[in-house]
Design goal:
The complex is a heterodimer of chains A (about 450) and B (about 550). With about 450 residues, chain A is mainly alpha-helical. Chain A is built from 20 helices and no strands. With about 550 residues, chain B is an all-alpha fold. The chains are: A mainly alpha (about 450), B mainly alpha (about 550).
Chain lengths: ~450, ~550
């Protein structure tokens, strides 16, 4: 038993999640769907137990990822699949993807990063493909292919770093005369990971998933994957400051791109997809701004994933692109509308929402490190981004007041809304709490 | 006692709690006392020994470098408290009648209480951290009040427009708060050189950010668009927020930080040009409006332009004095409009509102007083005193802009006359109205008295405000420039009367499109569509873009083996 207790928290969690994934798969022929759901729900809770009694950044990262996985598991039963029998595989994939995210979020070794990234990315690709809808398979294939290109980039980068430093450790210094190769390798690794952050110009695969995957899987990609990737990039940037300028540049580019892309959207799926790109940009910008920036990035990531999870929970089970006009004629129920509006306001960063405090935290480090011009571009992106978040709000409220009976949230979606909404409201009232967690 | 006065912003909180939780027989009655107590707090300070009262609690908002919760009650904030308390007190009383029977009356008063609380927090802010909190909360309250009638077409959209425009200002102010080093966010000492060391661009950067924030709140320059749309809200809201208080917050901030702005002459020039251009543009726009309240909204924009221009001319006292008098006569004009609209069962179209002088004699006369104060009729109206100071400062510091402002007084006369003559004098409508009650008309009287008499307080105000705004110029009841301006305004007013008589109540200038607005919108739309189109679904295109992107990044990062 000692060998288990001596393992890092992330590996303990990954081992428990993997065991549960196997149990879910094995139980399939005999056990009912409800049993499968219970097992899927139990897994993140069980995996969190070892980390619950520990302190430190690793334990916190693992707990945050597992909390998001719990919300994902709650939403699993609400989503429409091409074939309902695949719900078992989806449960197992969700747990394996979460295991990958735990490893990625806490990795100190380049090979751990690769394994974590690959597990997470494969799980998202397959889950997307199992969803119902005309484009899910196509999108899943593209995500897989572009993800493979990112993995190839990462492997090439890892090869260069290993050659230049003689080690797979993140913090390993290059041997004399090989600094250029080492730097190139690290840039390639960082670029590879940012695929999950959906940074321009390698955002197309993830953008497709946000557009077409069932909402709970899209939510998983927006939250669990993003948090894992952001924490991994933050570790790399902390160990090797020369990747920071690239992150700042890609961050500002992504914010600008997402602002324009978001303005052109007329449906909620598109809005959320470009929103994820924009928030990925803010995360990268912040990570690229030194120590203060990384603290702000963690704060930003916590607030963002809570708000995105709330939006995903509110929309879970609704098929299609969700055009704004449809929200008037086929409204969501009261709880879901309230949750969605709260989530959108927080994502938009309208004061005094938690998103506002998160953006505020990014501004200072950004001004001092990235400079006034890039910070002003980011601020304007944030402000004009608020316009596209606010656009569906009148339709949502009009739908609520139209007298049409909205589609109510299922019991598990209601619990997910309560969890994500509770955290979002808590950060609204006590933004310091998130900041303290980040610190 | 002096240390308690800065907490005056909390005086509307009991009303908010009582109203929100349903106390009192009549919704809103519990809230009415709050603003008058705020007025009394400001007035009590002005009657005292004039020593600034300061509150400072450290470590309030650790996200900002200057993390203290700081309040400051000095001459400027005390006078502003009187403005906010006095006008909102009148508006509360008026709303008791105006909102009677509305199912959301209780909610309305709770929102009003929240707004006044936030506005007073903004006024009493001693440092940037508290200012940001008040600034953002005022924007939120404005959104809630504009979109109060949720079922009315366009109200929610108008509220969101206001929220989005305010967000630009919030972002700028936040950036300023983030940039100012630890412990240096005090609004009265912001200009001290040691405080701005290390800020890229120095005083100019912080000054520019403050100007952007002020322009967003006061709807100046390109950020004007939200104010006319905000007229979709209830009329008392238009009178309180969009005439006398919130929109004046931008001018208040510029006055508060005038010493910092003085360190950045280029920024002051931008402020002056923005103010003058907005004053002229909004005056023309008012002449194009078919809607009564929107006509008044553009008039507010124009007058705020005068105040901005005054700050740009380096005359913060003139700007604040105009804010002070404008609050009374513009609130009066809006409340008169509310009485008319209420009596006409919600009709706001100028072509249908006409000949109401006999049916509504009281509001007609009070409206005339407000209109003449807006024009700046010398001696007998407050507007003349303050406008003279603005024009004098303009002609002294930037003659071309000063004369342009003087010319725009003619436009002020034209749009004011057009609105008053169209509504009250031309008798070609058979509109049925019902008589307004006393509670609806009563609050107009103190505002009318203010519109007439506040100008005479100019000299005393100048003395009181000297420590905050610097030495004030002499305030004259009659001056050559004042007579010219008054003549131009009155001429415009009478000319508008003849125009309305000849062309009917709906007489207005043809609407002109603004090519730059259309071009900017079209450009943004094209860019947005272009970006969205890049996401074409072609895997080859994606891979190619990603590869080129990676290559460009490696080249830009100058990686060499």
């Amino acid at each position: 038993m000692h060998w288990f207790l001596d393992m890092p928290h992330s590996l303990q969690a990954a081992a428990i999640l993997s065991l549960f994934a196997v149990a879910v798969l094995l139980s399939a022929p005999r056990a009912s769907v409800a049993t499968v759901h219970r097992l899927t729900l139990l897994a993140p809770i069980a995996a969190a137990l070892p980390a619950l009694f520990q302190r430190g950044p690793e334990a916190f990262a693992v707990l945050a990822v597992l909390a998001l996985a719990l919300i994902g598991a709650l939403l699993l039963c609400t989503d429409a699949l091409e074939n309902p029998i695949h719900r078992v595989e989806c449960g197992a994939l969700l747990l394996l993807g979460t295991a990958g995210a735990c490893v990625l979020a806490t990795a100190n070794n380049l090979l751990s990063i690769l394994i974590g990234f690959e597990s997470m990315s494969l799980a998202v690709a397959v889950m997307t493909g199992l969803g119902r809808g005309p484009r899910t398979l196509e999108v899943a294939f593209k995500f897989f292919a572009l993800g493979a290109a990112s993995v190839a980039t990462m492997i090439y980068g890892i090869g260069l770093v290993a050659y230049a430093a003689g080690s797979f450790e993140i913090g390993a210094a290059p041997l004399a005369g090989l600094t250029g190769l080492h730097q190139a390798g690290l840039l390639l690794i960082t670029l590879g990971i940012t695929y999950e952050l959906a940074l321009v110009p390698i955002h197309f695969g993830t953008l497709g998933v946000y557009f077409a995957a069932p909402m709970s899987f899209a939510g998983f990609a927006m939250t669990v994957s993003k948090l894992g990737a952001a924490l991994a990039v933050a570790r790399l940037a902390a160990a090797h400051p020369h990747v920071q300028p690239m992150l700042v540049g890609l961050g500002v580019l992504s914010i600008t791109w997402a602002t324009f892309g978001g303005l052109a959207q007329r449906h909620l799926r598109g809005l959320l997809a470009y929103s994820a790109v924009g928030h990925g940009g803010f995360l990268a910008l912040s990570i690229g701004c030194g120590t203060d920036g990384r603290t702000a990035a963690v704060f930003y990531a916590i607030v963002y994933v809570a708000s995105a999870a709330l939006v995903a929970a509110a929309l879970a089970g609704r098929d299609g692109d969700l055009p704004y006009a449809e929200l008037r004629t086929e409204p969501l129920g009261k709880l879901r509308t309230t949750a969605l509006v709260t989530g959108l306001l927080s994502l938009s960063g309208v004061p005094p929402s938690p998103g506002f405090w998160a953006k505020l935290a990014v501004l200072g480090p950004s001004w001092h490190v990235a400079g006034p011009l890039l910070t002003c571009i980011a601020v304007l992106g944030g402000v004009f981004g608020a316009l596209y978040y606010l656009r569906p709000v009148p339709d949502l409220i009009a739908g609520l007041r139209s007298g049409e009976r909205g589609t109510a949230a299922s019991r598990s979606a209601g619990v997910a809304i309560a969890l994500a909404g509770g955290v979002t409201v808590l950060f609204l009232v006590l933004p310091y709490l998130a900041l303290r967690l980040a610190n | 006692m002096n240390t308690l006065l800065p907490w005056a912003f909390l005086l509307t909180l009991p009303g908010l709690v009582l109203t929100a939780f349903g106390a009192g027989r009549r919704p809103g009655l519990a809230s009415v006392l709050g603003p008058w107590l705020v007025f009394a707090a400001g007035f009590a300070w002005l009657l005292g020994d004039h020593a600034p009262a300061v509150v400072r609690i450290e470590g309030w908002l650790p996200l900002l470098p200057d993390a203290a919760f700081a309040l400051r009650l000095d001459a400027l904030s005390a006078t502003m408290l009187c403005v906010v308390g006095g006008v909102s007190g009148c508006v509360y009383l008026y709303s008791l009648s105006y909102m009677r029977g509305d199912p959301g009356q209780r909610r309305f008063f709770a929102y009003l209480d929240f707004f006044v609380l936030a506005m007073n927090l903004l006024v009493l802010a001693g440092n940037l951290a508290v200012l940001v909190a008040g600034w953002a909360s005022v924007g939120l309250a404005s959104f809630l009040l504009i979109s109060f009638w949720r079922d009315k077409e366009g109200t929610l959209g108008a509220g969101l427009q206001a929220l989005a425009a305010n967000a630009i200002g919030d972002a700028a102010l936040l950036l300023a708060a983030v940039l100012v080093p630890a412990g240096a966010g005090d609004l009265t000492t912001l200009h001290e050189a040691t405080h701005l060391q290390g800020v890229a661009g120095g005083a100019g950067t912080v000054a520019l950010l403050i100007v952007v924030a002020a322009a967003a709140k006061s709807a100046q320059g390109p950020l004007y668009f939200w104010l006319p749309s905000a007229m979709a809200g209830p009329t008392p809201v238009s009178a309180l927020i969009h005439a006398a208080t919130m929109v004046a917050a931008g001018v208040y901030l510029l006055c508060r930080t005038h010493a910092l702005l003085a360190l950045a002459p280029d920024v002051l020039t931008v402020v002056a040009w923005t103010g003058v251009l907005t004053a002229v543009f909004a005056a023309f726009a008012s002449l194009q409006q078919p809607n009564y309240k929107r006509g008044l909204a553009y008039s507010t924009l124009s007058q705020l332009g005068y105040m901005f221009a005054a700050v740009g001319f380096g005359a913060p006292f003139a700007a604040f004095f105009h804010l002070f008098t404008h609050a009374a006569f513009k609130a009066l004009l809006f409340l008169v409009a509310g009485v008319v609209i209420h009596a006409a069962d919600g009709e706001e179209d100028l072509a249908r509102l006409s000949g109401l002088r006999k049916q509504l004699p009281g509001p007609a006369w009070l409206g005339l007083i407000g209109s003449l104060a807006l024009i700046g009729l010398p001696v007998v109206t407050a507007g003349a005193f303050s406008k003279d100071l603005v024009l004098e400062a303009g002609i002294e510091h930037a003659p071309p802009l000063g004369y342009l402002l003087l010319g725009s007084v003619l436009l002020t006369g034209l749009y004011t006359g057009r609105l008053w003559f169209a509504v009250f004098l031309r008798a070609d409508s058979q509109l049925h109205t019902h008589a307004p009650d006393r509670l609806l008309q009563g609050p107009l009287v103190p505002l009318a008295l203010g519109a007439v008499g506040l100008g005479w307080l100019g000299t005393a105000l100048g003395t009181v405000l000297a420590p905050a705004l610097g030495p004030a110029p002499a305030v004259h009841a009659v001056s050559g420039l004042g007579l010219v301006a008054g003549g131009l305004g009155l001429g415009g007013f009478l000319l508008a009367g003849a125009w309305v008589r000849a062309r009917g109540s709906g007489a207005r200038l043809p609407t002109l499109s603004l090519p730059w607005v259309d071009a900017a919108a079209s450009c943004a739309n094209r860019a947005a569509t272009g970006v969205a189109r890049v996401h074409s679904g072609r895997l080859g295109g994606y891979l190619f873009t990603a590869m080129v992107g990676v290559a460009v990044i490696l080249i830009v990062m100058r990686i060499r083996p």
